[in-house]
Amino acid sequence: MIDTNEFYVDFKKEIQDIRQSLDAKAIAPPQALERQDVLASKCRHNLMYLPVRDQDTYNGDLRDLLTFIRIHATQSKAKFKFSHRKLTLKGDTKATKHMLTKGDTSQEEESCDIVSDFNDTFVSKPTNDHSVTKVKVFNISKSVVVMDQATYSTAEIDDISDSIIFLYRVNGPVYINCVTNSILVLACHQFRMHKSDSVSTFVSCSSKRPIIENCTSVTFGDFPDTGSFNSLVAWEAIDDFSNLSSDRVWTRKDNGEVKRAVERGLNKDDLVLLPSH
Questions:
Q1: pLDDT tens for residues 82-101?
Q2: Which parts of the sequence belong to the C-CAP/cofactor C-like domain (predicted)?
Q3: Which of 234, 237, 238, 275 makes a 20 to 30 Å CA pair with 188?
Q4: pLDDT tens across 183-211, in order?
Q5: Rounded to the nearest 10 degrees, what angle do helices 4-23 and 29-45 cross at?
Q6: Which neighbouring-strand residues pair with 200?
């Protein structure tokens, strides 16, 4: 159990310090992104203790910070394209200690692939280093991103528009935020999508119950079984954590067109399949 007031005060202090450090050029955007990533991980780890009414505030503050970092990255011409680095989480603060299990040392290392800042581009990353456990895909527009042989334990997909994202496989959760007019083809253990609109999703989900919240015009189909992918698990139901009084926002969709595109190999021409093309 955590003190939620203390947690929020520390959260806001860290965001302010990251912003001030960037403005003062005390840290570069890659270091700021690492600190934002650690902060987001702390929030996810303590999600069960945070009031539901406050979770939108945390998500909004994290997205605003990410936007602030991107602005600095653009100004310094330091784009976060395909990159790979190892993140070290210090074990000094109370919030971080909640992230460490019994038997862990005072620091935990996590390697991360980053795919970001692409517009009108075809991107292919067929595989990844076995030491890499996480991938972050963000700020993608009018592009096709294919990661069909890379394997991760966790994935984050944020700020995607008019694009196709193909990711196989994630052995843990996929966290999705702010996706519009796009197609997601994902094989994962747990699926969580937040604040997204006009998204066609084709998913293999080991938990069998993808979760959505505050989404509109979402369709769900099965991950295309082309023979190239194994251990696929069909979803059984969609859990909508939005206001219970709202109308159903998702429908089932056939995966025929996407399956044919995957079989021959996705390319930029497949953007014609987008929901609002």
A1: 555 444 333 333 332 222 22
A2: 102-243
A3: 275
A4: 999 999 999 999 999 999 999 999 999 99
A5: 170
A6: 183, 219
